[in-house]
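[Help] Beginner question about ligand-bound structures

Sorry if this is basic. My supervisor gave me a protein sequence and a SMILES string for copper (II) ion and asked me to "get the holo structure". I don't really know what that means in practice or what format the answer should be in. Inputs are pasted below exactly as I got them.
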Amino acid sequence: MRLPVVVILTLLAACGSDAPPVVATDVVVKRPMPGMQMSAGYLTLRNNSDTDIAIDRVTSPQFGKVEMHETVIEDGVSRMRALGEVSVPAGSAVEFKPGGKHLMLMRPGDDLDSVTLEFHSGESMILSVSVTAGD
Ligand SMILES: [Cu+2]
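Answer (accepted):
No worries, everyone starts somewhere. Holo just means with the ligand present. The predicted complex, written as structure tokens, is below.
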């Protein structure tokens, strides 16, 4: 009766060792303009799993607060609204880019040479990426 146990363990190991379910590409963090307490971040999030994943919180050790925003045109005026959650559908990608969804990075610390962005879904941190803030 040993064989079935071995098979199950092998399957579990295969699940755990694959690429992470969510990956980030084209990560850009803007250095705040002089005197500004706010900056923006852009990236593409890809969900390689077969389950939809809802990002409901973003944090960064280098910023006091991070919000997910979306730029919308209302009555010909560009406005930003905060998003409580961003869903990344299974096998799909969501872009954060100028004029669309973006990260609003508030209350910057002094050292932005390495900025870490942490994406949370419920109680889990599902992704952490680091990038140097640029102009
Ligand atoms: Cu914004």
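A couple of things worth pointing out: The chain has one domain: 20-131. The radius of gyration is 18 Å. Feel free to follow up in the thread.
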